[in-house]
Request: fold
Amino acid sequence: MGRHGWDSGPLRWRLTALLGVAAVALALVLTLLNTLPGDGGSTAGTTPDGDKVHGTPAVPHGAVGPEVGWGLTHTQFSADQGSGAATARVKGLLSKRRLPQIQHIMGWGAGNPEPVKGRYAFAEMDHRIDFVRATGGTPVVTLCCSPDWMKGGESGADSTDWSRAALERAPDRAHYGDFAALAATVAKRYPDVRHFIVWNEFKGFWNESEGRWDHEGYTELYNLVYKALKKVDEDIMVGGPYLVMDSVHPRQRQDASTTVRGPWGAMDQRVLDAFTYWNEKKAGADFVVVDGSSYTRDDDLLPDEFTATDKLTAVGTWVRERTGGLPLWWAEYYVEPADGNDERTGWSETRRIAVQASGLMAMARGGASSGFYWNPEKEKGPACAGCLWSPTAGDDGGEALPMLGLISRFHEEFPPGTAYETVSVAKDDRPDVRVLADDAAVLVVNTRDRSVSTKVDGKRIHLAAYEVKWRNR
Reply:
């Protein structure tokens, strides 16, 4: 869980030190004026009309059904902030590609949306939604995480606990209804958001005493949110359960699935059990959401980094068979293990792009029609391994990086509804290349750290080490 980490950064509601008796007295008066009787917290900077429509909702230009294609998730640092020149540059890049974009309601770039019950603070969320609107992308909202007062913390605009442990705690059961009400408020505020994901990675839903996921608790929350959103607008599309599809070493027996397994490892049976429960007890779903990596829980890439991506195909196939063909989304996907600081810098960018391309291919083969690249930008540069664009902190930032080219081209060439076709590859070279094709395009990946010359789809093709190449048919 939470492999991507959380860095709270500067708190948004930090009080400035006040000097002098008069200033202290003023602060006390303001506190009294901004505190509602019995709510236990300051309402400074909040509003009671959180469901008031924000800005000018965008007219949907792209995905209006449950499948949105391949895109990205905004996290703590993204192109809505930074140098004006750099952010404008990214807006231009994304406007040409119109990628679907996910934003969470709390954390990962958004503040506490409801610091006090019935009092809302959507400034940062508004800013992110405005950014997505400005780029013409399809906005997707992940309904996570929950305000402190819903999970045993303090109420108040100046009391948010941004520690990772606090952020990733699930709401208490007594507040499931309050979270569903917050979800409905978000839906009313942004009526152009038609796709909602319920929660993130089962955060806070681990049953410690039984050593398994609390799939009952999550499903109860999911069903309340699903019904609340459908009450706002029955055409809103809702998906879950956003489970981390963990796997273990193929030799491991404890918690290992005996049916969903391969050279890449074996699925954690506890995850499959949780998914099965949600799938059987859910109030409904317009699409299904998973998350996971090609490597095992112990960061083993088996038998190698490219073959390990076959796990993504196996997971997708298993999920689709059990959900009656519901559209499948990968909210997050990882093919490169992180180090102790949650950094992925050990590979060259060409190798990284090649394995990422292989992962996208594997997800598509497993029936996925949507997938989201996590964390497109770091706070500062110049090094930015795996980023979609260079950091926007400086005027020279916001330049497209190779990963953006891969994601956007994949979105363009293989949109939802693509009928994939089998193409020929020279027999002796099949272990060296991976191929995905439809009637118009072929994507070819060299999995070797040396050049390869082979025939694909009847045509001779030369590939440098780890090269990713597109061909028209």
User: Anything to note?
Assistant: The first strand starts at residue 70 and ends at 73. The two ends are 41 Å apart (CA to CA). Residues 1-38 have pLDDT under 50 and may be disordered. Residues 215-232 form the longest helix (18 residues).
